[in-house]
Design a protein that fits this description.
alpha/beta; eight-stranded parallel barrel; six-stranded mixed beta sheet; 17 strands; binds 4-O-methyl-beta-D-glucopyranuronic acid
């Protein structure tokens, strides 16, 4: 309804009598995301690019058709000029596959300007596709091409998006409409958005997609669904993206045998057991896998959530996570497939402190997993909180492939109402030094296989996409999708570079626009955490939505608060969670004086009178900081309004609307927080 109102308002704002003005730009609503090709108005710059990119020689790779259409579309939109495709001699831009340059690996490329000719080379076909998007981005960002000397090789093999999409079109923790996969239209019709989705992913280096929710409906393994999945895989393959499926460990069971959590779903199996040690179960999976590869020859593998939040798993049969993962891995192995086994488990019998549980379950299994199993592990030990210390399994697991799972969808960070740019948090997580192998064993080094020689390297992001016109609900949430992909491609890329690339390719290169949008985005994560999880306090939201303030239900369960102080003692005098870290992190977190302040309350119960590094008491700053969500929204509204006239109308109004909604919701959260904590502090 609100959207309809906005669009109406917007149409009123347009000069409807001028046909010229009611052009696609005025009605643009973000559907192209960062592949938005704004015309270059400066004629000198336009001619400059035409002279360098106007004549192209393709390499004869399997992606030629895709590369040709991407170049044609982008250049004709930006330069009002269609490139022609010519022979090597006549070309100004020349692509080639160099079978001698194996150092570039399966996906890397070089791009150099050699005597006025731009030469792109790669060892394999995919490198050329990635180079094409890199080149397009350079033009979108108005970068010069004369001194090009680029060599890019992604350091992580599997750069994955995980969709938590259900069969009925719902998306668990999705805030951007329904699923993009229209199961009732597939396999006959693969709608245009799926193609665009693949283009957007390929342009940032995503090469793998898990289509369905980890709370997996077994019916996805039915033959009719596998055919639908195959039709998506056929499209994604054109963009070097492989498809993966979340599978339910109890899929082989006949419906009457399935656990309650699965009753709403239909079954696919007919067995009495899903015990991984039973030959009949192993055979069931082998046959299923054979069927899948017949339909999808480059199928990537399975993602599994087992013995977690009610989902079935090997422990139901007194087997370990390793037994379960290896059974599936062995079925996939002959075809080159993989198992991504999640470590998100928190069985209360394991330990009183939830943060300790996953480590305690998985650490003893290190070395017992097959080489095509990857343990997919959330960044933090709790659950995608706005801030958390890194999960100590990173670094502890020496003999098991480890993948990080980040959450792009804003489950705990304001859904698609708040503008919260997550890149600063992810950067901080990836650059955390675990000290697991002496100096400089950052999480990114571990993920890239530099610390322990993992045969497989991977990173996953829980997607924030849906079928809403702008893909992500909030226009600025596109930035989190983009940033995840760019980080997965190269985690060393600077925050500034990734952010500016996104702004310029999404909103244009006007220097004021770039400056203001950057100013809006960069502080949002910090201000959100200060007001919603101050000093790393932990869960503060309601159980159902993970959005509204709900302090009462969290207190004493998740953290303590009284008139003396606040927080959770996880030091060696408390739950001793700190012991899961290597030194010096263990001591650093253990000591209130050296513990990072934004994680203080995650590790310590702190007296309200405690003096923070600013010299202020915790009491004073805690209450002051609660305002930061509202102030951030206020500042961003003012900054955004200053861009009036510089941003196309629909996007301008939609962002403005989100910011106003954010302010309203932030105010409600703030008021509830203030009255709750003031009462606990016994402030009248
Ligand atoms: O954060 C929790 C979410 C669940 C999700 C689960 C998980 C898919 O609240 O909705 O289930 O994590 O990661 O498995």
């Amino acid at each position: 309804m609100v959207r309809i109102k906005l669009i109406f308002l917007c149409i009123l704002c347009l000069d409807v009598f001028s046909v010229e003005k009611v052009c696609s730009e005025s009605l643009y609503a973000g559907e192209e995301a960062w592949l938005h090709y704004l015309p270059i108005k400066n004629d000198t710059l336009r001619q400059y690019y035409i002279s360098r990119l106007g004549k192209v020689c393709l390499a004869g790779s399997k992606f030629d058709e895709t590369i040709k259409s991407e170049l044609s579309e982008s250049l004709s939109d930006m330069l009002s000029f269609s490139p022609c495709f010519v022979t090597e001699k006549a070309a100004r831009l020349c692509m080639q596959i160099d079978k001698k340059d194996s150092s570039l690996g399966e996906e890397g490329f070089r791009m150099e300007n050699q005597n006025g000719q731009i030469r792109i080379s790669s060892f394999s076909d995919a490198g050329l596709l990635y180079a094409t998007y890199c080149l397009i981005r350079l033009v979108q960002c108005h970068e010069p091409l004369d001194r090009l000397k680029i060599k890019e090789i992604p350091r992580i093999d599997f750069r994955m998006l995980n969709h938590w999409d259900d069969m009925d079109g719902n998306i668990e923790r999705g805030y951007a409409g329904n699923s993009l996969w229209k199961w009732n239209e597939l396999p006959d019709v693969v709608n245009k958005r799926c193609w665009d989705y693949a283009r957007l992913n390929a342009s940032i280096g995503i090469n793998s997609v898990v289509l369905n929710n980890v709370n997996a409906d077994p019916r996805f393994l039915r033959t009719d669904y596998l055919k639908k999945i195959a039709s998506l895989a056929d499209v994604f393959r054109k963009y070097h993206i492989r498809v993966c499926l979340s599978v339910n460990f109890a899929a082989p069971l006949k419906p009457s045998k399935t656990p309650d959590v699965m009753k709403a779903w239909g079954g696919v199996g007919s067995l009495e057991t899903a015990n991984p040690r039973e030959p009949v179960v192993q055979k069931w999976w082998e046959e299923k896998v054979r069927e899948i590869y017949r339909l999808i020859p480059d199928f990537e593998g399975f993602l599994v959530k087992a013995n977690s939040e009610g989902m079935p798993g090997p422990q139901d049969y007194h087997c370990t996570h390793a037994d379960g993962a290896n059974m599936l891995a062995r079925a996939l192995k002959p075809y080159g497939g993989f198992v991504f086994w999640r470590t998100f488990v928190y069985n209360p019998d394991i330990d009183k402190d939830r943060m300790k549980r996953s480590y305690k379950e998985f650490y003893p299994l290190d070395g017992l997993f097959d080489d095509n199993v990857v343990l997919q592990t959330k960044n933090g030990p709790l659950d995608f909180q706005v801030i958390e210390p890194p999960q100590p399994l990173f670094g502890a697991m020496k003999y098991t492939n480890m993948a990080a799972e980040l959450q792009i969808t804003q489950e705990y960070t304001g859904h698609s109402t708040y503008m919260v740019y997550l890149l600063p948090f992810w950067k901080r997580f990836l650059s955390f030094d675990t000290f697991c192998a002496g100096e400089r064993a950052r999480i990114v080094d571990i993920l890239e296989g530099k610390v322990y020689p993992f045969p497989i390297t991977a990173i996953a992001g829980v997607a924030n996409t849906g079928d809403s016109l702008n893909w992500t609900g909030h226009h600025f949430a596109q930035a989190n999708w983009f940033a995840f992909g760019r980080l997965a491609w190269n985690a060393e890329l600077a925050e500034q570079q990734i952010t500016e690339e996104w702004i310029k390719s999404t909103w244009g290169c006007d220097s004021t626009v770039v400056k203001i949008i950057r100013q809006m985005m960069l502080p949002t994560w910090k201000s959100f955490l200060k007001s919603s999880s101050p000093y790393g306090l932990g869960l503060t939201v309601d159980i159902e939505t993970h959005y509204r303030a709900a302090f009462d239900i969290r207190v004493h369960k998740e953290w303590k608060v009284d008139s003396i102080g606040i927080g959770t003692d996880r030091t060696n005098r408390g739950s001793d969670y700190v012991s899961q870290y290597f030194e010096p992190n263990r001591s650093l977190f253990n000591d209130i004086k050296t513990c990072p302040e934004d994680l203080l309350l995650c590790f310590h119960f702190v007296n309200w009178d405690y003096k923070l590094s600013s010299g202020n008491s915790l009491r004073h700053e805690f209450l002051e900081n609660l305002k930061s969500g509202v102030s951030q929204a206020d500042e961003n509204i003012a900054l955004w309004l200053s861009l009036s006239g510089k941003i196309d109308k629909i996007r301008f109004l939609e962002v403005l609307y989100s910011l106003c909604q954010e302010k309203q919701d932030a105010y409600v959260f703030y008021s509830e927080a203030m009255s709750f904590f003031r009462e606990k502090m016994k402030i009248k």
